[in-house]
Write a structure and sequence with these properties.
By secondary structure, the protein is of the alpha+beta class. The protein has 8 helices and 7 strands. The structure holds iron/sulfur cluster and FE2/S2 (inorganic) cluster (FES). FE2/S2 (inorganic) cluster binds near residues 61, 67 and 78.
């Protein structure tokens, strides 16, 4: 089978497609297939021409770190959690996430996810254990990888804009529910950077590898502030 990769040598160079033959196991993940192609010292593409190693990011290789987020056959996904056999022998097309600047090949700069949280001062901070009745929901949100897959499919997210997307909205809920002294400020920030713009397509929930309950976070933050979160 063929693996088509949208490559880009540097942040300022032009992207181009390059095709590689893949003769490895169908039980490999797409991350494993990229590793397999990159393994040899002499890398040749499907045209038989010498090529260079494909740039991509990984760390855990088990769906925990979010580093390997990319677009595989049109679907934003984690490469280590997507398997070659699922494509039933069809060619695989891989491109980098489109909402972030490309650094090299499939490696993108996701700094904006963290910068937006920093700019809005949404951080865990003080924790009041007496306000812990929302533990299950808080725990679910704590699993967010900051992988950016939700932003890839979001019709409203544009890198550098004032709409910060699902990962931000969930962290707003996390902070507000753990520290009620922050409640008023967080609700204002949430409305400014998420609530007023979100069109509720909820595509973010469909692609999220951690099944983060974004809709529940939104509902809880939208409730009257005099009510409890639960
Ligand atoms: S909400 Fe889901 S898709 Fe979005 S950054 Fe977190 S883990 Fe990734
Ligand atoms: S390498 Fe960590 S999620 Fe894929």
């Amino acid at each position: 089978m063929k693996v088509n990769v949208l490559r880009q040598q540097s942040p300022v160079s032009k992207p181009y497609w390059e095709t590689f033959e893949y003769d490895g196991s169908a039980d490999n993940s797409v991350a494993g297939a990229l590793d397999y192609i990159n393994y040899h010292d002499d890398i040749v593409n499907a045209e038989g021409k010498r090529s260079t190693r494909i740039g991509w990011e990984c760390s855990c290789m088990q769906g925990i770190c979010g580093a390997c987020a990319m677009v595989i056959n049109g679907r934003p996904a984690l490469a280590c959690e997507t398997f070659v056999r699922d494509f039933k022998g069809k060619d695989i097309e891989i491109r980098p996430l489109r909402k972030f600047p490309v650094i090299h090949d499939l490696v993108v700069d996701r700094t904006s996810i963290h910068e937006n949280l920093k700019q809005a001062n949404v951080c865990i901070g003080e924790y009041n254990p007496a306000e812990n009745e929302e533990h299950a929901h808080q725990y679910a949100i704590g699993k967010c990888l900051k992988c950016g897959l939700c932003l890839e499919v979001c019709p409203n997210y544009v890198n550098g804009n004032t709409f910060f997307g699902a990962a931000f909205a969930n962290d707003c809920y996390l902070v507000a529910s753990r520290n009620r002294t922050e409640d008023k400020r967080i609700r204002r920030i949430y409305a400014e950077h998420f609530g007023k713009t979100c069109s509720k397509s909820l595509s973010c929930m469909e692609v999220c590898p951690m099944k983060i309950p974004t809709l529940a976070s939104m509902a809880k933050l939208n409730r009257n502030k005099t009510r409890r979160y639960g």
